[in-house]
Automatic annotation (TrEMBL):
Membrane topology: Single-pass membrane protein
Gene Ontology terms describing biological process: cellular response to leukemia inhibitory factor; lipid storage; positive regulation of lipid transport; response to bacterium; retinol metabolic process; visual perception; vitamin A metabolic process
Protein name: Lecithin retinol acyltransferase
Sorted UniProt keywords: Acyltransferase, Cytoplasm, Endoplasmic reticulum, Endosome, Lipid metabolism, Membrane, Sensory transduction, Signal, Transferase, Transmembrane, Transmembrane helix, Vision
Highest taxon above the source species: Eukaryota
Length: 230
């Protein structure tokens, strides 16, 4: 049986992670989008390589399948709205991506290297060094990725693009990015100043909005839970 408190905390952490990285999904003009896509020399890429694209706050990952094709996990709200592959196979727009993150719907899809990287620099198999794990054989990595193609649930904390590639590459799904975010949240919670700040904000909301259940209960319970967690 699932713990409703843990589910609520997990949902809150995911929304905080989404908000903290919202600049990653900032939309540009059509001209800017087109300019971001450049030509990539894929001659050094091997089938089964992990391609890593650093962004402003997050890093996007994919598995190279050969022939300029990359398998990667992409949130996309359109998958929940239509079965038309002609629409869903188009490059995912920023709005579709953000709504897909909120709706927790995604797919493991295949795009060109250009559409995957979107003009950013590409690192190859950087996770091998950073995680210090032994990688599976490249062909097995690629086959794992191909078997997972299609719709999937999405979670910024528990099932994102990094979980996908680490499962394919190492056999175990992990996400250092999500782990680092959770550690930062723990540090904030353990800081007693967070309790004081939440209490002050709670009192301010009561003063501004009046004494009601929707102001009083959060003003009491949020500082209490932060204090207990710390």
């Amino acid at each position: 049986m699932k713990n409703p408190m843990l589910e609520a905390l997990s949902l809150l952490l995911e929304k905080l992670l989404l908000l903290s990285n919202l600049r990653l999904f900032s939309a540009g003009t059509a001209g800017e989008d087109q300019a971001r896509r450049g030509f990539y020399d894929t001659s050094s890429f091997l089938r089964g390589d992990v391609l890593e694209v650093p962004r402003t706050h997050l890093t996007h990952y994919g598995i190279y399948l050969g022939d300029n094709r990359v398998a990667h996990m992409m949130p996309d709200i359109l998958l929940a709205l239509t079965d038309d592959t002609g629409l869903t196979q188009k490059v995912v727009s920023n709005k579709r991506l953000i709504l897909g993150v909120i709706g927790r719907v995604a797919s493991i899809r295949v795009d060109t290297v250009e559409d995957f990287a979107y003009g950013a620099d590409i690192l190859v198999n950087h996770l091998d060094q950073s995680l210090k794990k032994k990688a599976l054989l490249n062909e097995e990595v690629a086959q794992r990725a191909e078997k997972l193609l299609g719709m999937t649930s999405y979670s910024l904390l528990w099932n994102n693009c990094e979980h996908f590639v680490t499962y394919c590459r190492f056999g175990t799904p992990v996400s250092p990015q999500a782990d680092k975010f959770c550690e930062n949240v723990k540090i904030i919670i353990r800081d007693q100043r967070s309790v004081l700040a939440s209490a002050v904000l709670g009192l301010a909301s009561i003063v501004c909005l009046g004494l009601a259940s929707y102001t009083t209960l959060p003003a009491i319970f949020i500082p209490f839970f932060l204090w207990m967690a710390g």
